[in-house]
Structures are given as structure tokens and as C-alpha cells.
């Protein structure tokens, strides 16, 4: 269980074989699955195939999220465009859903993305009816760009993120 990086007590670890069934179960829950780009249920075979292919794209990073020695969720970052990254995450562990840990993950993942490459921004997309995710992303400095019936496209620059992080520091300091 290699820790790639750690921020705010969250360990962003390499996904291991022992993680994938729990991640799949969480991913298939309606409250998580219906917020994804691909909303289909994932079979054990599909999950295994996904796991075996994780290392094929060097510009895509997948993380098992651990807090206090417990798997709590999943995050990813893709550097598919030369000047920006896109990210996604979910907290699956029932004890931590809706907690400050999602903010810790979001801030930590954004920090890591801006440290990796000289990118100018990070993007995300959210289904329009997921108001909690929209508020969450706006608290991390994202601003709404385009919107259609299926998606709200958000983006943030590094200065916008740093401003948002500054506002969040009193909360984040509890996890430093």
C-alpha cells in the first residue's frame, strides 16, 4: 500500500487488489453511481479489468483514499490537456460521507495537481441536480462555465483555488 502523497491526514494511496471490491460496491450505490459520467453498474469483471489497466495511461492518476487506516473513497486526476487537469472523487465510507474529509480531499488533490505540472487550471463536471457537489466545488474555487441538461462544467485557476483555500484554512487546520 504505497502512499503517493498525504494531505490533511488523508493518504492518497496506490489502488491495490484488496481495495477494488469495496470501491466497486461504493461506486455502484445509487447516490454515487447516478452522479458519474458513466452511470451504469460495474460488474466484478469490469472492475478487475479496470484495475489491471490503471497503469496504461501515465497522465491519469487513480487513488484509494485512506483516513486513519481505513479506506474511505476514491479520487482521480487526469492531465489529458497540456495546460489543465480534471479531477473527480467520492467518499464512500458511510461514516465520512458529508464530512469535512471531502474538503480535505478536494484541497489536497488540487494542491497536488498544481504541483505536478505547470498547469493553469483544473476542471470538473457535475450533474445539474447534484446541488451538494456544486456547492462543494464552488467552495474549492471552481466557477461554473458551460451548462446543459446533463452537465455543469466547472473550472478554476490556481489563483482562484488559492483564494478558496485561504478561506478554508481555519477548517483545514484541524487536519494539519
Give structural notes.
The chain has 176 residues and is of the alpha+beta class. The protein contains six helices and eight strands, in the order E-E-H-H-H-E-E-E-H-E-H-E-E-H. A hairpin with a 2-residue loop joins strand 4 and strand 5. Helix 4 packs antiparallel against helix 6. The longest helix has 16 residues. 30% of the residues are buried.
Strand content: 25-35%
Strand order across the biggest sheet? 1-2-3-4-5-6-8-7
Q: Which structural category fits the helices and strands?
A: alpha+beta
Report helical residue fraction.
25-40%
Radius of gyration based on Cα positions: 15 Å
User: Uncertain spans, ≥5 residues at pLDDT below 50?
Assistant: none
For the largest beta-sheet, the strand count, sense and barrel status come to: 8 strands, mixed
How would you spell out the order of helices and strands? Answer: EEHHHEEEHEHEEH
Determine the mean pLDDT. Answer: 92
Count the beta strands.
8
Query: How many helical elements?
Result: 6
Terminus-to-terminus distance: 22 Å
Query: What is the 3D shape?
Result: globular
Amino acid at each position: 500500500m504505497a502512499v503517493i502523497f498525504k494531505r490533511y491526514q488523508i493518504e492518497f494511496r496506490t489502488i491495490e487488489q484488496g481495495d477494488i471490491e469495496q470501491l466497486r460496491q461504493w461506486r455502484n450505490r445509487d447516490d454515487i453511481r447516478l452522479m458519474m459520467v458513466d452511470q451504469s453498474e460495474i460488474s466484478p469483471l469490469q472492475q478487475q479489468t479496470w484495475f489491471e489497466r490503471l497503469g496504461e495511461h501515465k497522465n491519469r492518476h487513480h487513488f484509494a483514499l485512506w483516513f486513519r487506516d481505513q479506506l474511505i473513497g476514491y479520487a482521480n486526476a487526469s492531465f489529458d490537456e497540456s495546460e489543465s487537469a480534471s479531477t473527480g472523487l467520492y467518499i464512500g465510507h458511510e461514516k465520512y460521507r458529508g464530512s469535512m474529509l471531502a474538503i480535505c480531499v478536494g484541497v489536497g488533490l488540487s494542491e497536488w495537481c498544481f504541483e505536478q505540472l505547470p498547469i493553469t487550471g483544473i476542471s470538473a463536471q457535475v450533474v445539474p441536480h447534484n446541488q451538494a457537489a456544486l456547492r462543494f466545488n464552488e467552495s474549492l474555487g471552481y466557477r461554473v462555465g458551460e451548462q446543459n441538461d446533463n452537465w455543469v462544467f466547472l473550472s478554476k485557476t490556481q489563483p482562484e483555488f488559492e483564494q478558496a483555500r485561504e478561506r478554508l484554512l481555519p477548517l483545514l487546520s484541524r487536519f494539519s
